[in-house]
Structures are given as C-alpha cells and as structure tokens.
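W.,

You were right to be curious about this one. When I first looked at the sequence I had no strong expectations either way, so I just let the prediction run and decided to look at it fresh. Below is the sequence, 535 residues in total, followed by the output.
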Amino acid sequence: MKRKMITGILCVAAAVMLGGCSMIRDMRSLLNVKRETENAATEILEDTGIEFGYVEEDSCEAYPEIFEPDWNTEEYKFNEENGWCSAVTSPFSTFSADVDTASYANVRRMLLEGKEVPEAAVRIEEMINYFDYDYPSATGNEPFSVTTEIAPCPWNEDTKLLLVGLKAREIQQEERTPSNLVFLIDVSGSMDEYNKLPLVQRAFRLLINELGEEDTVSIVTYANEDHIVLDGISGSEKTLLCDTVEDLYASGGTNGSDGLIMAYKIAEDHFIQGGNNRVILATDGDLNIGMTDEGSLTRLIEEKAKSGVYLSVLGFGEGNISDTNMEALADHGNGNYNYIDSISEARKVLIDEAGGTLFTVAKDVKLQVEFNPEKVKGYRLIGYENRTMSAEDFSDDTKDGGEIGSGHTVTALYEIASTGSSFEISSVTSKYITPDVPEGSGEFSDEWATVHICYKEPDGDESVLMDHIVDETAISDQMSGNLSWAAGVAQVGMVLKDSEYAGTTDLEEVRSRLKTLTGNDEFREEFVYMMNKIK
C-alpha cells in the first residue's frame, strides 16, 4: 500500500467519504482548520474508529486537490562527495562529529510518498547514524567508548571498509540536571498545514509530559514579529503548558531571526548554572522577514551560542522546507537537527532518545583519522561532506565541532585500499616525500591508523585529546553486524545519490543482507521495507 499524506482542508463531508480508508492515524493533526470544523471532523472520525496519518493510494488519486500540493520549493545544499585521498600525501582525515538524523527521516518521507529524492537531500552519515549500534559502553570517566573494525568492502573486491564508532556515556535519569527550555515555535502562515503546526503541538505535548517541577519552560513564537507566550513556567504546570501550546495558530510572515534573538534572551534570563539550557526551534525553515540568508543566520547563532545555551532544531512539513537553513542553525548553535514527519518520529526524538537529544556529554567533538601509508594506500570518507575540516583545525579550539548527547552513537565509514591492493589511487607526489614505503619496515608496522578524538566538556573551554590505535586486531574476514548494517545503509545512500563510488552495489543483495540484521528493531525493519520504494 502506497502511503501519502493529506495536504488540503478536510471538512466534515470529506471525512465521511474517507471513512473506508485504512491506516489513518494521528487524527488530531488532521488539518489546520478552524477549531469548530476540526472538532466536528474529530467526532465523526472517532465514531468510525479511524486514526489519522496515512491513506490508501486510490483515495489520494480520487481527491488530488485534497492530497497533493501543486508546488515545491524545498531547499537543499549540494555537497560534492568525498573522493579518494592518498595516505602518503594526505594522511590526515579530519571531520566534525555528527549525530543529526534529519536527512534520513526526510528521505524516508519522500520514499514512502512515492516521490523522487533529490540527491542533495541525501546525507549518508545522517542515514547511518539514524540507527542504533551495538557498541560497548564507555568506562571510567571517559565520555565515550571507541570501536574500530576493518573488513572486506561489499561493493568493491579490491578495497576494505574501516568502521569508527563512538558511543557516548549514558546519563541516567537520576543524574540529569534541571532543564531550562525555550520552545521557539514558528507560527507563520507557512506552518498552516496538517504536518506542521498541529504536529509541532503534539510533539511538544509529548515532551511537556516528561518534564518535572525542577525544569523551567518558556514559549516564544514568531510570525511577522516575535511574541513571548509564557516566561519561566515550572515543568509541573503541565495543563497550562499543554493548553498554551494547543491554542497556537498559524498566520503571517516569518521573522525567524527576531524570534531566535528573543528565545536566547529568555533562555539567558532563566539560565541554570550546570543545567541543560536549550532553545528548541520548531519550524519549516522558510524565512521571509529579517535575516533570511544562511550566512547572516549562522553568524547570529554563533554569537548567541557563546552564552552557553544550546540550540536544537526540529524540522516539519514538506513542499517548502528549507533544509539548508535548519541544518546550518543546528550546526552553528551547538545542537542537533532532526526532521519530524510523524508523531512516531517525535516520540523517538523527544522521548525515547531524550537524553541524546537534550543532554550533552561532550561538545566540539572532532575526529581525525591518521592513516599509516605502510598499510593504507588510500582512503575515502563516506559522507560527512559538510563536516570535513582541515588537519590544522583539529587542534584549534576556536573551530567548532559536533555535539554528542547521552547514549548517542556516532558511526563513520571509510573505504580504504591497502598497500597490497591492485586498486589505483591518484596522488601528487613531492620530492620531499617518499611515496613507496616497504610494508613492515617502519616503527608502526602493525598499525593501520590512529583515531584522534578531540572534545570539550559540556561547560569547558579547553579541549581534551583521546587516541585509539587501529591495528591488526581490528581486521576480520567478515563484516560484523554493526559494519554490515552501516555498509548497507551507505550503499542505499550511494544509490540515491547516484554515486560514482557505488561499485557493484545491488539493492536486492543489500536488502537480503540487511533483512537478517533487523532483529526486533522497528526502525531497521522499516528501512528494509522502505528499500522497496527506491525506483
């Protein structure tokens, strides 16, 4: 059954006509109509036992004016894929850690709706990092564990895959510090869609129900101008908070920059020393008043981030979402970016993974993999195109890295060619560098690489360095479950991007392999199903 979302205004009569459709869930987010009409439709749908969410394809075709938008101005930033690098002339690969998952959820939405996926919308590292991996927990006082593995590459017989996995220390519920949260909600006219403001309202109600008396919540909205709706309310005032969120409605322009300035001011007014101070922005990213370009917005956020207030961005909707703006805001605001396409995804991000989403274990996390040319001829980092950094930036505390939250895992994949491989690597040689190093001749002949990790404590200003050696013990003849799953997701991402590096990838083979690795994970099962939708 092909699922498509309802995008028009559903009146009572339309609700009756659709009474025979199945799999309709999240009924309260049905449409952004006037409250009287919405309540009437709600009563009828409840009487018929229907839940809201998705409808049968034939219903979508029967009522195209209700189901299909006739415009699309979605905006994605193009990043050229990482190419091969010589380990002799470029031994360092440096990038900022990334735990964003927005790209995966957005790609899923498009595939399940039967739409073509723009190549620029596919960020392979976000697809890989959407899933959980079985990495060991951190020990002692270290903020995360490090796992590495080398095994044959499933799409190129002449190369191998190197997995680098981090798992952040999990902050237990009783250890979590009080939260000072500012809900910054876009209530402009573009949010007047069933999968925008109504879904925002449901998502925040979920989060409100998880808060306690020691937590502080403020609500700021913006349209033509910003507005302080609630200022410093205890998390125990759940009825007031939920009712206030429920009463919001969408209209007007989109002055997001003024909203951000006000939200940060409120967050600073209620700042909790040693606590979780965070602005949570819910928007489609479509700005048309005040600062609207990515450069001005990122400069604004970089300045505000110095206050110690983090920024999480939740993206909503379709048709006009500005993925570029939302990703830039999160990256420069010491936060994360998630795309919410359903109440299930809202629950995953804000409830099931609340620790990782809201509680930071380490900030400005940067990784640098130093390859040993005795063992590695060349390498290619898969994904992270918009997170790569120069080797010099690794030790520069002024250069921003990524943030890792409680219990989060970060996975990076490299395709590597060993010195004994017939795979050819193009490189520019220098008279000061010897390109041919006899294998086993050097002091570090057992080492394939060293993973350098640089991070700061959540309230620290100076970086801490960790090193992890990748030696012969990391090598295996077969991929582990972790590596096999990550490699399969990467293969799907490369197919969606029409990547020149996809090699012999066959989606049916990938699907068969991943099907054995789903376990009881509903999100992995969904991914395997979703692969059927790739054209």
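Here's what jumped out at me. The CA atoms of residues 64 and 473 lie 58 Å apart. And, maybe more interesting for your project: The longest helix spans residues 481-496.

Coffee later to discuss?

I.
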